[in-house]
Design brief:
Blueprint lengths: L2 H21 L4 H20 L3 H24 L4 H25 L4 H27 L21 H13 L4 H26 L2
Helix pairs in contact: 1-3, 2-3, 2-4, 3-4, 3-6, 4-5, 5-7, 6-7
Length: 200
């Protein structure tokens, strides 16, 4: 919901750093995999009860996730890089609720519901992108991407805000997880409505 509005604010500094890193020989894929490693380490830290460390690693993951695209734009974007980027994103997204589910038994069911909602949201997102690409449609509402990014109620910025809230208020994990799973479900409905109007 807010990703496209944040892009004009975060892209200029990311692109500036991306040009420096690309000039130094750092590849976008290196940053993608480094970011994934940090994100999974954050989930492991949460599972072990180290929420502040987990939160720091979540932020580190997001910084590298922004920089990999900036480096790609400063060099030569590839389809393989775009593939690695989206797979790494979803691996990170599902790992955080999994970490909370491991941390406390009371978190297991809401974590499973949230992960299931992420899967449904991801399927709707990728199916929309595949069909839009097949129809030759393009958008740069989220900046220059490897494939079509459809806007939804629950996107990256909202997900990170939810993860931050979970780390700061772990006793409320269940409530936050169920509420965000509901927003993800609404996103699937919203995106399906958009597909009905756009893919007739």
């Amino acid at each position: 919901m807010f990703d496209s509005k944040l892009r004009p604010l975060i892209d200029p500094p990311l692109n500036a750093v991306g040009r420096i890193l690309a000039g130094a020989g750092v590849s976008a894929n290196m940053l993608t995999f480094a970011g994934l490693a940090l994100g999974l380490a954050g989930a492991a830290a949460i599972a072990a009860g180290s929420l502040w460390l987990g939160l720091a690693l979540i932020f580190a993951n997001r910084i590298l996730d922004g920089l990999d695209g900036a480096v790609a734009r400063a060099s030569t974007p590839t389809d393989l890089g775009g593939y690695f980027d989206i797979v790494a994103d979803f691996a990170f997204y599902v790992s955080i609720p999994l970490g909370f589910g491991v941390m406390a038994a009371d978190n297991t069911l809401p974590a499973m519901v949230l992960i299931a909602s992420f899967v449904l949201t991801g399927v709707s997102f990728l199916a929309f992108a595949a069909i839009a690409a097949n129809r030759g449609e393009e958008t740069q509402a989220h900046g220059k991407k490897s494939f079509f990014y459809s806007t939804g109620l629950a996107e990256g910025a909202e997900t990170i805000a939810v993860f931050v809230a979970m780390c700061l208020f772990p006793a409320w994990f269940g409530v936050i997880a169920y509420a965000y799973a509901g927003l993800c479900a609404l996103t699937v409905v919203q995106r399906s409505g958009l597909a009905i109007s756009q893919f007739k």
